[in-house]
């Protein structure tokens, strides 16, 4: 094994350094929802912001006003 995983620069790679290197490798190659090895990251989850919530409330108000004006 090369000295790539020699994190404390003592000249040799012990089992702890091998384990840390393996965990780093595992995290870097973990499947993140997409296909393995794809260069495109997974799409972020969309959350409603304040403006979108305000617009939904205003739309509901307009629709309910219209329904009430037809009824009365």
Query: Care to count the β-strands?
Result: 0
| Cα distance spanning the termini | 83 Å
Pick out the low-confidence regions.
none
The portion of residues assigned to helices is 40-55%
Query: What is the rounded Rg?
Result: 28 Å
- Listing every helix as H and every strand as E from the N terminus to the C terminus, the arrangement reads HH
Q: Tell me the β content.
A: under 5%
The shape is rod-shaped
Number of domains: 1
Total of DSSP H or I helical runs spanning 4+ residues:
2
The major beta sheet can be summarized as:
none
Overall mean pLDDT: 80
Structural class: mainly alpha
Describe the structure.
The protein has 72 residues and is mainly α. It has one domain. It is built from 2 helices and no strands. The protein has helices at residues 15-28, 50-71. The mean pLDDT is 80.
